[in-house]
């Protein structure tokens, strides 16, 4: 039996940053904290190993910079504008890997409550999701465009 691992959409910049972080994490440590000093050497090593595994997983499943079709469907790699129906407030964000992107646009993961709710929606479609307090938030997808069409050009 085979399992399929979902592809992860990354900008070229995010891919480059993750590769650099992985290189730094894999570099030999100059010094290791000594357990006798009370420094959390073992805990730090475990966190480092977890981060290495996380980055390797992201990079091995990455789709780098390939824009999804400009068809108005919310999916990773798209910049989405949603309206919170109860307040009328709007928010624009990139649906992608949170923590990999460092830019001026907010990033929501497709696994986050908002990201999961809006993923696959068409322009004008209403969706709902639950927040940790248990309240239901209703949203409407106002726009969905590929990241490359809105990213700042530097």
Automatic annotation (TrEMBL):
Domain (Transcription elongation factor GreA/GreB C-terminal) ranges: 71-142
Keyword list, A-Z: Elongation factor, Protein biosynthesis
Coiled coil regions, renumbered to chain: none
InterPro entries: GreA/GreB_C_sf (IPR036953), Tscrpt_elong_fac_GreA/B_C (IPR001437)
GO molecular function: translation elongation factor activity
Name of the protein: GreA/GreB family elongation factor
Originating organism: Lentzea rhizosphaerae
């Amino acid at each position: 039996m085979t399992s399929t691992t979902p592809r992860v959409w990354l900008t070229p910049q995010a891919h480059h940053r993750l590769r650099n972080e992985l290189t730094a994490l894999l570099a030999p440590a100059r010094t290791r904290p000594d357990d006798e000093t009370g420094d959390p050497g073992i805990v730090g090593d475990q966190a480092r190993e977890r981060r290495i595994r996380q980055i390797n997983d992201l990079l091995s499943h990455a789709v780098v910079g390939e824009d999804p079709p400009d068809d108005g469907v919310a999916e990773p790699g798209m910049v989405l504008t949603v309206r919170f129906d109860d307040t009328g407030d709007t928010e624009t964000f990139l649906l992608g890997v949170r923590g990999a992107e460092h830019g001026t646009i907010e990033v929501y993961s497709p696994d986050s409550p908002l990201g999961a709710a809006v993923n696959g929606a068409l322009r004008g479609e209403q969706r709902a999701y639950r927040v940790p307090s248990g309240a239901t938030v209703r949203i409407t997808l106002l726009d969905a465009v590929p990241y490359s069409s809105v990213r700042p050009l530097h």
